[in-house]
Amino acid sequence: MRRCRAVIFDLDDTLVQTSRIDRASILIAALTVITDARRAEAAAVRFAALLKAEPFPPSPGEMVASWRTSLWARALGGELSELAVGDAEAVQQAHDTWVAERLGRFKLSAEVRAMVRRLQSAGYTTGVLTNGSTEVQRAKVDACGACELFGAERVIVAGEHPEQKPAPSIFRTACAALGQSVESAVMVGDSLSADVAGGINAGMLATVWVKGALGDSLMKEPATAGAVERPQPTYTVGTVLELEAVLDLIN
């Protein structure tokens, strides 16, 4: 009898290469308001650093789009006085261009789609569990067509629930949506602290860490102090496309 009956995927930097998409779209956005390439690149680096440090507003009532527009204002900084358009217009243009470019590029590759369909044809129940707010993550889900591939009820945005990854409760919620037990499900994701630690604490059958060729996954992890060890995944892969071989080992 097959041990693994369900596979739950993270979205960002697991199914879709979000970090690569962001690097390209942030630079394009900066270039729309700063014509000098070197200065635009510097502004893009500043915005990327701000976004990594403070991706969501500190006040629960503030919209994410408003907060991220303010990050663009900080990133553009001293460049604003030399722009041809007004400051507020330039900031809004940079933000809106970034969002449009980001969502326009946010697609599931043909290879990823084919792999998921093979798993489904082989009898695996598949779903998506992604952290983040409804405002941001649902736009990504729509852009990449995840609901069409997995089924709308099997695409879980953790920000719509009381707890997000790595809380065990959200993994149980995801497994329930798939109609499977946590003991028969595998969690696949790029975050050691959210996907791997959460999957372990929830009692899932196995965790698969998508390390990534560019080291984006490690760069996103919070720093650990002293003797604190990173959670240990059951399996490590360079790309989600290696998952089928891992499932063969599990079963």
TrEMBL record:
Q: Which Gene3D superfamilies match?
A: HAD superfamily/HAD-like, Haloacid dehalogenase hydrolase-like domain
Q: Which domain of life is it from?
A: Eukaryota
Question: Which GO annotations describe the biological process of this protein?
Answer: N-acetylneuraminate biosynthetic process
The record's listing under SUPFAM superfamilies reads: HAD-like
Which cofactors are named for this entry? Mg(2+)
Name one matching Pfam family: Hydrolase
Keyword vocabulary terms for this entry:
Hydrolase, Magnesium
GO-annotated molecular function? N-acylneuraminate-9-phosphatase activity
Q: What is this protein called?
A: Uncharacterized protein
